[in-house]
Write a structure and sequence with these properties.
The complex is a heterotrimer.
Chain A (H helix, E strand, L loop, with lengths): L7 H10 L30 H13 L7 E2 L12 H7 L2 H4 L11 H18 L3 E2 L6 H16 L3 E5 L4 H11 L5 E5 L20 E7 L10 H10 L3 E6 L18 E5 L15 E5 L12 E5 L5 E5 L6 H4 L12 H38 L15 E5 L4 H12 L1 E2 L2 E2 L10 E5 L6 H15 L1
Parallel strand pairs in A: 1-12, 3-4, 3-5, 5-6, 6-7
Antiparallel strand pairs in A: 2-8, 7-8, 9-10, 11-14, 13-14
Helix pairs in contact in A: 3-10, 5-10, 6-7, 10-12, 11-12
Chain B lengths: L16 H4 L19 H4 L18 H12 L22 H7 L2 H4 L11 H18 L3 E3 L5 H20 L8 E5 L5 H8 L3 E5 L9 H9 L3 E7 L11 H10 L3 E6 L11 H4 L3 E4 L19 E3 L11 E5 L2 E5 L16 H37 L15 E4 L1 H4 L5 H10 L6 E2 L8 E4 L7 H20 L1 H5 L12 H6 L17
Parallel strand pairs in B: 2-3, 2-4, 4-5, 5-6
Antiparallel strand pairs in B: 1-7, 6-7, 8-9, 10-12, 11-12
Chain C lengths: L8 E2 L4 E6 L2 E6 L1 H7 L2 E5 L6 E2 L4 E7 L3 E5 L4 E6 L2 H4 L3 H4 L8 E5 L3 H4 L4 H11 L1
Antiparallel strand pairs in C: 1-2, 2-3, 3-9, 4-6, 5-8, 6-7, 8-9
The chains are: A alpha/beta, B alpha/beta, C alpha+beta.
Chain lengths: ~450, ~500, ~130
Amino acid sequence: MRYIPNSPEERDEMLKIVGLNSADELFRSIPNDVQLNRALDVTAPLSEIEVISEMEKLAEKNMAARKTSFLGAGAYSHYSPTIVDHLIQRSEFFTSYTPYQPEVTQGTLQYIFEFQTLVCQLTGMDVANASMYDGSTAMAEAFLMAQRVTKRDKVVIAETVHPEYLAVAKTYTQHGDLKIETVHFDKESGRILSDDLDKLDAQTAALVVQSPNFFGCVEDLQILADKAHEVGALFIVVVTEAISFGLLKSPGACGADIVVAEGQSFGIPLSYGGPYVGLFACKDKYVRNMPGRLAGIAYDAKGNRGFVLTLATREQHIRREKATSNICTNQGLIALAATIYMETMGKRGLQEVAMQNAQKAAYASNRISEIEGFSLPFSAPKFNEFVVRAPKPAEEILAKLTNEKGIIGGLSLSRYYAKNPNDFLVCVTELNTKEQIDNLVEGLREISE
Amino acid sequence: MSIKKVTQHPTQNEELIFDRSQMGRVGYRLPNLDVEETNIDDILPQELRRDDDLAGVPEVSEVDVIRHFTRMSTWNFSIDLGMYPLGSCTMKYNSRLNEKVARIAGFANLHPLAPESEAQGALELIYKLQEDLAEITGLKGVSLQPAAGAHGEMTGVMLIRAFLDKRDGEKSRERRVMLIPDSAHGTNPASAHLAGFTVKTIRSTAEGLTDMEHLKTLCEEGGVAGLMLTNPNTVGIFETNIKEICDIIHEAGGLVYMDGANMNALVGVARPGDFGVDVIHLNLHKTFSTPHGGGGPGCGPCCCTAELEPFLPVPRVIKEDENYKLDFNRPESIGRVKAFFGNFGMMVRALAYIQTHGAEGLREATEAAVLNARYIGHHLVEAFDKPFKSDSMHEVIFSHKKQSRKGVHTLDIAKRLIDYGFHPMTIYFPLIVEGAMLIEPTESVGRQDLDAFIDAMKSIAQETIDDPELVIGAPHSTRIGRLDEATAARKPVLRWKPDMETLSKSA
Amino acid sequence: MANILENLRYSKDHEWVAVDGEKATIGITDYAQHSLGDVVYVELPKVGDKLAAHDAFGSVESVKAVSEIFTPISGEVLEVNESLNDAPEVVNNDSYGDAWMIKIKMDNTLEADALLSSAEYEEYLSNNE
């Protein structure tokens, strides 16, 4: 086995040194009746050439990866500068562990500190952690944190939060005493239904709103923050499309207490759903209730500045069942990729890419709405996603579009909202050219005729 | 101008990127906008748009970014540089082949909501890995959805909860105690808490094993939902009584959860399913060598018995005829634990690892890892206190007992190891050994490096006698010395701000 | 050897109590601060909270440990030492003085009499060494 440095002969010698006659004797402490005593039924060893060939064959079957796509809904196709993937493959980053020994992990600790800062700047918050698994689990953790902070047991959540995020939150909270109530959306605007906000009351720990929401509609966060604060609840903002931070007013500026986001848009490949990176930020006063790792500045005896993991007493390895979360491993390397992305794009790049997304989506939505029989059901302002109402069931139209035109035109919403079988969600990013958008419009026109 | 070189590290003073930023620098270029432009006010009214011009976000060139991260990287120790013997963390070689295949466009560019018929390769890959992990653990039901070990633990204990709720109905209320050894990872009680369990701690014996009498007593007290056990346990010893332990828990009406953090000591040799374990999580970033990347990403598959399978997270990946499908119709499922299907990129790497090793290579890796740990144990038993006599598996534990008399503690020994070119071992864990030093060499270390490590440890033991101050003041070779963590925690500075002093105090 | 003041009462959880009529001041002992190491954070209850004897009323954190603080006697919280928020290190420097944690109005002054005297606490510590 080429990954094992010691040859079989060397291993035999070492066995003798430790007083054993065979490798089997290494496992004397495992009773024989629970030993496997046969070879595992997995493949025989493959060479590098064979592994690549096997993997290429599997990858080839993922036809969607080669097609023009307008899929979004929590995972987005964006440009990632070449240096992002180059830098994260440096041995020093990708083959190091959690920075428990600060003297030999300053590289990791400093980029975490920069990541925390950038997340604060984009979300408009005071403090951010070193990352969560993804946006969905970050939101679930925010629920639990709001319950700890307010000592209240109800969370009111907009129906237009990503349905898979809501499902995850329900899993996380099913054995606690937290109740989840959903607020419906307004059928005209696609935004949260303000009449339904009377669900907020003195037992409410948090109001949770996604913006842009699952339909791509931008919510009026400021008004919602006031509503939450009126009853003493925290206001939690969820963002699945981090590119929107470059253009939209930050949740912090609108009054958010906790912001959770999916950071995949920051240079991370789609990779069939992961690994991504959860962003988690909040106001200073809640820092001791935060989940996850935090890096902070520290000095050595000579006054040199360095960084350490700090406020660790919140975490499971110290507080065990009373910890703020059970999280240990986070998304270190993906947070690094996001940091490199944000710094490479910089202030101007983050603004320009956000603007291009909004412009291209506006162009696409205008063109699609001109097709006979197609409409845009929601009137609220949008960022880079929008819902289209087709004259026929969306499943049928999208399948035809894929099979006949080689375009994945979006996501049928019937999977999540059975009431609107003709609706589908379209996402347009800076990677979709005018030609692709025009082909989509033409395709939809032909298929619906 | 004279150049003064006074630092021992070539990139001593790489600033924060925010201090490097210069207005007007750019590190990117996008294609020109190719659609006709709409007035931005017609897309998004001004009150919904940012008005802070992204204050503080840096402006730097591509070269600035490359140098910034390359310089910072030189401050890190890494597996590729040398032995990284963090016990319980399994810092083994991260194959470049695995990195290469995870980046194949057909995987990297695949959207998780693509139609199933257009993503058959990804689903097949998930299915294959599920089958392999089922074979390796002897547990038939597998979900790859959990994102890391602790997430897999949470999933596992929730399966137990769901099973008991179904089996016992209302009476399940009376069964809410999770037994956890005093030597367990902190994630165990934290995960149990999330599933609504209260924790009772089982004592360890003087030999580092589960105290069977105490286990029986706790079971007699009643209300036992289950046991969370690491095996080999966190002191690196196989729980020889594992079958009896499982029987006791089962007789008490509970289920057995195994923390699979140390599964790399068993692959190809023994299977948790054959011990009587009901559910286990694996750490693909430990046992199956997906990179740790400075603290993640991980991937924490949950494997369970057929009895628990109906409760696994949705969607499941199943095979029907020759097609692979997502099955959402699992009414007894605990629900989703993560959006989409888990850390797929890690699954590609883990499958490549399994394929590269094959059945024989997997066993060979296990043997080599255990042998390396045994070899270290054999050579250091004189110089350091080894609290347990039993055979160590893939990791070996020592304490600072012999050195602390001279005022040298585990922390000092760990820091001094850095000066010898090694990453420290895991320290002060598990808590049952005072001044614990948990050493896990893994199979990825050759004999010369093992000998060098042994020499370094012996040398430190000698220094403790001859010149303890040298050890107490370590490390002496790094860019920074030991940091004042108390002040950092009292007045936490967790982000850069424009007006802050970020350079060294002494600079 | 840990510093023990003569005029105080002690609990086996290493809290000290200074009794003044119906009022009791509570803090942690020198032994406790020493075994914790550098204290970085102190969490205290609110004025008006009602505590029963042996309730945890807060916690003391060092860099890598958390210890709950228990009240040895029942009563209502009259005052909390807010200055520990900004200067938790005082717990290490002056555990019997400026680092007092709470003052309570005792429900039952007899509870304080049942606590250890300085001599008894000293003996308790030496037995636990």
